[in-house]
Design a protein that fits this description.
single chain; alpha/beta; 3-stranded parallel sheet; two-stranded antiparallel sheet; 4 helices; 32% helix; globular
Length: 162
């Protein structure tokens, strides 16, 4: 997606079950980590799974669980979100949440202390902290903070120019 200008996001509407992929989960995950495009995954199989649970064998059940976990991983590592609606009526709220997430963003930048250009993947953690550096859970009036932080799990360091 590097050829597309502007902010980008992927809304993935899928069962999540892998059928005939050309890339493995690990290769896909690595590409997503490098691109930095948030993925908003919407799983379509929740209702069917609930209806079919008594008729599914353990392998089918495991396929669905693995599919959900892969979508969750793609979403969380790219700074997106994953949704698993059980009813058709939930889609409106899901699309509204995605819309709000894309419209209400802050961009934070930093300079890493590790300046090595080795192309390695480096994990990052974004937290809301108070003035003393303690993770914040209440505002100055003692009310619980209602913020949600969605951030990439890391980034790929640049490689040295050869």
């Amino acid at each position: 997606m590097s050829g597309i200008e502007g902010r980008k996001a992927i809304v993935l509407i899928s069962s999540g079950v892998d059928t005939f992929s050309k890339l493995t989960f690990d290769k896909t995950r690595k590409i997503l980590q490098e691109d930095g495009v948030p993925i908003y995954g919407i799983g379509l199989m929740q209702t069917l799974r609930i209806l079919m649970e008594s008729r599914m064998g353990p392998i089918q059940s495991m396929d669905f669980l693995q599919a959900d976990n892969q979508m969750r991983t793609f979403a969380s590592e790219t700074g997106g979100q994953s949704f698993f609606p059980r009813f058709q009526g939930e889609f409106g709220e899901i699309f509204q949440q995605i819309h709000q997430a894309l419209r209400n963003q802050y961009v934070l930048t930093y300079s890493p202390s590790n300046k090595t250009h080795d192309g390695s993947y480096r994990k990052i953690k974004v937290q809301l902290v108070d003035l003393n550096g303690i993770p914040a859970s209440e505002d100055e009036k003692g009310k619980p903070i209602k913020y949600t932080i969605l951030a990439k799990a890391g980034y790929k360091a640049p490689r040295a120019i050869e």
